[in-house]
Amino acid sequence: MTLFNKTLLATAVALASTQATAAGFQLNSQSATGLGRAMAGDAIIADNASVLSRNPAAMALFDEKSLSVGMTYADVNVEVTEAVFLGNELGGIENAAEGKPIPNAYYINPVNDKFAFGFAAFSNYGTGADLSELTEGVSPSPVDLLGNTEVATINLNASMSYRLNDALSLGIGIDLIHGSGKLSRGSLVDVEADGWGVGGIVGLTYEVNENHRFGLSYRLSPEMKASGDIRYLITEFDDINIPLADIAQFAGFHQITEKFALHYTAQWSQWSSFDKITLQNDGAPEVDLKEYHWKDSWFVSLGGTYVVNDKWTVRAGIATDHGVVDLQSSLSIPDSDRTWYSAGFTYNINPKSSIDFGYTLVVGEKVHVEEDNALGMPITAYTESGANYFSLQYNYRF
């Protein structure tokens, strides 16, 4: 089965993912403050409740109830050029993706000086691209590889933290992940499916002193099962099973002067565990769609925060994000190495409430893609993807 192994796989991955835009389908966009510093130090800074998306142990740094509610608009651009199939020039698409709003909400409640709990809702993965335009007016055309894909996910998290001593705190949380998506490839594939998965996260924080601290977390990702209307060629399937990558990250925060702080993050995603996608009907053996040889990826960022006065704080950051595509590439997954450029600010309305704004420009490399259809006939093209992220967030401490 090779006809839709890659295109169905692309949707299946995004249908059930767990963690922000980064390699693969990650959407590193959980907060306005994070987008203002390229996510540098986000597992330890704890300047608002959105730290819950990265490290549950960081709730131990809070001595007041804290609420953060935000919205990110992802203006994603996917450009396809010089597409060729069997000697036919299919042309290109200037922008095959649509912008999407990404909401988030976080609440942290310190019970006492040892114990805290919190709840969060955010999105870790999502994608949307329509490549069907490349098949119009061309015959033959690789309709099995080009079409429309829409995916959305939400991660519901409940976590707790416990302070062991003045330096060390531990945290643990459970993730309930819902994914939904649609996929169409002419008359050959029609998918509308959704599903739930259960994962978890563990973390710790270590405070050297009030000016220097470190955070470490590990997110356990589930194997998702999505169900719905799944038609491949003339066969109906009940479920798609998708293994997902675990994610580990290390972050540091250093208050260099009274006004300036330096922070950083190193995030590793185990995309090599994404070995194959399977289809299944009740009572029947699983059907292997395809092995898909991705590789582990690293996201590394460096940022700085400067307190201008009691009303204004500014921040900036830069990051490098390694793509996951290794030996096999796909037009449905226009992945590449990317560079992040970020800036943002906080305005303190009063001692209890503040507003954050963050902006990130993601610049991807132009890559050459070659993908075979079911009959072994290749389509070649160049793809380039990037994004502008705009994020606004409101914070309140009770």
TrEMBL record:
Its main location: membrane. Keywords: Cell outer membrane, Membrane, Signal, Transmembrane, Transmembrane beta strand. It holds the Pfam family Toluene_X. Residues 1-22 form the signal peptide. It is found in: Cell outer membrane. One of its GO terms (cellular component) is cell outer membrane. This is Transporter. It comes from Shewanella aestuarii.
